[in-house]
Automatic annotation (TrEMBL):
Stretches that traverse the bilayer: 21-43
Domain of life the protein comes from: Eukaryota
InterPro entries reported for this sequence: DUF707
Protein's name according to its UniProt entry: Uncharacterized protein
Keyword Membrane annotated: yes
Organism, as annotated: Platanthera zijinensis
Keywords annotated in UniProt: Membrane, Transmembrane, Transmembrane helix
Taxon lineage: Eukaryota, Viridiplantae, Streptophyta, Embryophyta, Tracheophyta
Length: 399
C-alpha cells in the first residue's frame, strides 16, 4: 500500500509538469511559426517558373489555348483570397477624361492608336520590326491592273507601308510579286476606295504615318519618285496635295495640270465665271480625288467628312479646303513629280446592267447623284450650325 501511495503521489505530481511542458512547447512553436511567416514574403504565382518539361508536356497533350487556360486557372486559384480587395481597388478607377467606354481603365494601359506593321508570332515584341515605316500608300485594285500596280509600288521606298484594297476579290494571284508578300491585302468585292478608306483608314489606325497616299490603280508613274515627292511637300508646307498630271493625256482641271517650270503650284486660272474667288476651288485650294496625298492632321479631318454611304467621293475634292487653313496655301500640286492618269474604266465595269443600260452608265449616274447629295448635306450642316449660333449663313459651301 505504501508503494502504491508513493506511486499515486508520483503520478499526480508528474501530470501537471508534462502538461505545462506541452503547453509551453506549443506556444513557442506558434511564435516561431509567426516570426518565420513575417520574415519571408508570400510566394506569388507571378514568380513561379514552371519547368520546361512540364510546359512541353502540356503543349504536347493540349493546344496552346488549353495551356493558357490551365495557367489562367492556376492564377485564379492562387489569387482567390485577394480578389475582394482587388475589386475594391478597381472600382475606385473612373476617369472621365478617358475615351468613352474606357473610364474604368487606368490611363497607363490605354493604347488608342494602331498601325499596319506586320508582327511575328514568336520572339520578343520589341524586336519584331526591322523598320517602322513613316508613310502609307494605298491602291484600290483589280487583277487586270497588276502590272501597272507593280510598277507603281516600286516607286515607293521601304519607308512606305503598302496596302492594297481588292475590289474583285482576287488576292492570291498577287503572291508572285515579291513585294506583295510584305503588303497588306484587304478584299471586298465591288467597293470603291472611299468605301475602304472610311472603314480601314480611321485616323487612329493610321496615326503612325506622316503622310497617307490614297491612289487609284490607273496611274502612270514613270516620272514619279515618292521620297522626292515627300521632300517637296514638306518644303512647300502642303497638307493636302497631288502630283501634277500630264496635260497631254486625259481630261483634267487646269489646277491639276503639270507646269513644267514649277516645283509646286497652288493656284491657277480657270474658265471665266468658274471661280467666284481666286482662293477657292477650282482655282485654288483644290486637288482631284484620283491621287490625293494627306498629312496625318489633314486626314483626321477628311476622314470624318467622308460620308459612310457615299462611296464614289464626288464632291469631296471641292470640300477638302475645309480641313486646312489657309487652304490656298496648304493645298497644292507638285509639278516636279508628276504622273499620267490613264483613265481605265475598270471600276465602271464592276457595275450592274439595269433598264438596258451598260454597267458603267449606272455607276456614272450614281457618281453624279452622290455629288449632289454631298453638296446638299454639307450646305445643310453648315447652315444649321450658323442658325444655331445666330450667324447669317454664307454660301461658301456651294460649289
Amino acid at each position: 500500500m505504501g508503494k502504491l501511495g508513493i506511486l499515486g503521489r508520483s503520478v499526480f505530481f508528474r501530470k501537471p509538469t508534462e502538461s505545462m511542458r506541452l503547453f509551453i512547447t506549443t506556444i513557442l512553436g506558434v511564435m516561431l511559426g509567426f516570426f518565420i511567416g513575417i520574415s519571408f514574403p508570400a510566394i506569388s504565382i507571378t514568380k513561379l517558373h514552371f519547368p520546361s518539361s512540364i510546359i512541353s508536356y502540356i503543349e504536347d497533350k493540349n493546344s496552346g489555348i488549353t495551356t493558357q487556360a490551365l495557367l489562367n486557372h492556376a492564377w485564379t486559384s492562387q489569387h482567390q483570397n485577394n480578389s475582394l480587395s482587388d475589386v475594391n481597388a478597381t472600382a475606385e478607377i473612373y476617369i472621365t477624361s478617358n475615351p468613352k467606354g474606357t473610364e474604368r481603365l487606368a490611363p497607363g494601359i490605354l493604347v488608342p492608336e494602331s498601325d499596319f506593321y506586320l508582327r511575328r508570332l514568336w520572339g520578343n515584341p520589341s524586336e519584331d520590326l526591322d523598320i517602322q515605316q513613316k508613310y502609307l500608300v494605298t491602291f484600290t485594285v483589280g487583277l487586270g491592273q497588276k502590272n501597272n500596280i507593280d510598277k507603281a509600288v516600286k516607286k515607293f521606298s521601304e519607308n512606305f507601308t503598302i496596302l492594297l484594297f481588292h475590289y474583285d476579290g482576287r488576292t492570291s494571284e498577287w503572291d508572285e510579286l515579291e513585294w506583295s508578300k510584305r503588303a497588306i491585302h484587304v478584299s471586298a468585292r465591288k467597293q470603291t476606295k472611299w468605301w475602304y478608306a472610311k472603314r480601314f483608314l480611321h485616323p487612329d489606325i493610321v496615326a503612325r504615318y506622316e503622310y497617307i497616299f490614297i491612289w487609284d490603280e490607273d496611274l502612270g508613274v514613270e516620272h514619279f519618285n515618292a521620297e522626292e515627292y515627300i521632300k517637296l511637300v514638306r518644303k512647300h508646307g502642303l497638307e493636302i496635295s497631288q502630283p501634277g498630271l500630264d496635260p497631254n493625256k486625259g481630261l483634267t482641271w487646269q489646277m491639276t495640270k503639270r507646269r513644267g517650270d514649277h516645283e509646286v503650284h497652288k493656284e491657277t486660272e480657270e474658265r471665266p465665271g468658274w471661280c467666284s474667288d481666286p482662293h477657292l476651288p477650282p482655282c485654288a485650294a483644290f486637288v482631284e480625288i484620283m491621287a490625293p496625298v494627306f498629312s496625318r492632321n489633314a486626314w483626321r479631318c477628311v476622314w470624318h467628312m467622308i460620308q459612310n454611304d457615299l462611296v464614289h467621293g464626288w464632291g469631296l475634292d471641292f470640300a477638302l479646303r475645309k480641313c486646312v487653313e489657309p487652304a490656298h496655301e496648304k493645298i497644292g500640286v507638285v509639278d516636279a513629280q508628276w504622273i499620267d492618269h490613264q483613265v481605265v474604266p475598270s471600276l465602271g465595269n464592276q457595275g450592274k446592267s439595269e433598264n438596258g443600260k451598260a454597267p458603267w452608265e449606272g455607276v456614272r449616274e450614281r457618281c453624279r447623284r452622290e455629288w449632289e447629295m454631298f453638296q446638299t448635306r454639307l450646305a445643310n450642316a453648315e447652315n444649321d450650325y450658323y442658325k444655331k449660333m445666330g450667324i447669317t449663313p454664307t454660301n461658301s459651301t456651294h460649289f
